Amino acid sequence: MPDQEVEHNKDIVAIKDWLSKQPHLPNDVEEVLLRRFFTSCGYSLERAKRTIDFFFTVRSTAPELFCKRDPWSPEIRRVFEITDMLPLPYKTPENYKVFIYRLNNPELDLFNFVDAVKTFFMLADTRLTEEDDIPSGEIPIFDSANVSLKFISKVNLSVLRKYMLYTQEAIPIRLKQVHVINAPAYISKIYALCKPFIKSEVAKLVKFHEPNSSTLYKDVPQELLPLEYGGKAGSVQQIKRYWIKRIEAKRDWFLANDQNWSVDEAMRPTSCKDDRADQVRDLPGSFRSLALD
């Protein structure tokens, strides 16, 4: 509807104007990202403002995830090698974007949880700042085929909490479904690690699917998936290479982003305090990771 689009464009101008007047926040922000905030916040101007502030605040309190992000660094290349992070090319009939995340190697000695989350967010930033076609929702699919109980010992609890808070309350997406496929019998033990950080409304979206089951296809049409999953979206390697090249092409942006999107807390007005920011402070050192007996 043309009239509605005109009003929405006015709101985006209003967000830009508001952002330019926030002394603690970055001003150089892609318009497509601002549109994503406005859309994901139900076209509420005030809610979008609060979420934008929290988005940058979380990032600034998590330098281990949002600084020194060089796609050519050995740490990021290792994540590219042992994981498959796949935004799929086709959307569902409801206009939802589908994303598959999996470990492609059951040997976890090479896996670093912090580096994996950092790379995950690099991929997210690539999508959020470059894709004009904003989906109506997101459906992440976590393939746990290569996840063993040893995975628990790899988890950094401080980073897990920041990941959960950022993805549920800061990042401008509308989560519609969450699927865990090829779920082993011990998946409940791994899920128990995440559960304290999962909001109740998000927990209701999570569905587990046993190995060799077809229950996923009740929610996600199989043809949207890669060839390896019986779909028509191309091979895992084709999709993966496409996104790695996109991230590599954005290298200069990532290297400059440390400073460009930093928050100056000394300049934050007292009226802009957000209690949620306290949740991203580091846990005591002894609780940053778990070890299996």
UniProtKB/TrEMBL annotation:
PROSITE patterns, sorted: CRAL_TRIO (PS50191)
GO molecular function: phosphatidylinositol bisphosphate binding
Domain of life: Eukaryota
InterPro entries per the UniProt record, alphabetical: CRAL-TRIO_dom, CRAL-TRIO_dom_sf, CRAL/TRIO_N_dom_sf
GO cellular component, one term: membrane
Residue span, CRAL-TRIO domain: 73-237
SUPFAM superfamilies per UniProt: CRAL/TRIO domain, CRAL/TRIO N-terminal domain
Protein name as annotated: Alpha-tocopherol transfer protein-like
Gene source species: Papilio machaon (Old World swallowtail butterfly)
